[in-house]
TrEMBL record:
It comes from the Bacteria. The lineage of its organism: Bacteria, Bacillati, Bacillota, Bacilli, Bacillales. The gene is miaA. InterPro entries: Dimethylallyltransferase, IPT, P-loop_NTPase. Catalyzes the transfer of a dimethylallyl group onto the adenine at position 37 in tRNAs that read codons beginning with uridine, leading to the formation of N6-(dimethylallyl)adenosine (i(6)A). The keyword Magnesium applies. This is tRNA dimethylallyltransferase. The record marks 104, 127 as: Interaction with substrate tRNA. GO terms for molecular function: ATP binding; tRNA dimethylallyltransferase activity. Its EC number is 2.5.1.75. GO terms for biological process: tRNA modification. It is an enzyme of class 2 (transferase). It comes from Alicyclobacillus mengziensis. NCBIfam families: miaA.
Amino acid sequence: MMDAKPPVLCIVGPTATGKSDLGILVAKAVHGEVLSADSMQVYRGMDIGTAKLSKAEMEGVPHHLLDLVYPDVPFSVAEWTAEADEVIGRLHREGKLPIVVGGTGLYIRAVTEDLDFAEQPGLLAIREKWQAYALEHGPERLHEELKQRDSVTAQRLHPNDVRRVIRALEVGEATGKPMSSTYDWTLQGGRYHTALFGLTMPREALYERINLRVDKMVESGLYDEVKRLLERGYNEQNTSMQAIGYKEMVRAVHGEMALEQAIEDIKQATRRFAKRQLSWFRRDKRIEWITLDASGNLTNVDKMRILQVAEALSAGIVQTNLE
């Protein structure tokens, strides 16, 4: 029996598994709408490299939480959560099922759990100290400081991603523990009744889909998209431009790397990213995993299972509104 919390369906998993297509299929079946849970699709003008759907590809299904800010504007998970809550609340009032689709684990976590975004006492002073250090010594030295304190987090952050490097340093200093060891995976449940489906597929097939997707991005004009962003004044100092596909192509545009090498680097980085995504989501035992075949197709049994859950959630919204 469904609890009294308003329902949300989540479709998660690594990149290139067809989450977007499934989200559209479900939305059309149950009169739902899609919320993007992708930390890079919030940026305007970054379309090809983030695999944003075109209007035609959305097939008439409204999509939310896209193009929220310009690429030089910092955007936090707390801000995304506030935007998501507003959209979800409105959809519930309209009798529509919110379908959260994406591979940014912390965004999904923010929907399924009540994460605490409150600042700890003294955090501002620590942040200002490291901001001053970065200005005096530069991003490389700042990153080296993080590497000495938290090598795991340093490994996944680029030295030019100064904002997140400082965040990792301040969390470590405030808590006395490295950021990589402080994440709490205890599942408490949040403000929504959530059902989660995860898409996966054989690794070699997934990697081939990733390679083909990158090739398609390049054919669609990724190089020119990055060039336009650079011409507008955005650069590798912006967190957005550190996204996979953009940081490599920036080097190609600047002539620091051959285009062919940039493409290969994007493919490799995306494959590694998919592996990290899968590791993250595997920790959440609430996710019901659906294994696609080598061509990325769902079985009819799996498709019916997902639609049955979606219909039950949608029926719960209707019942609540009737009351």
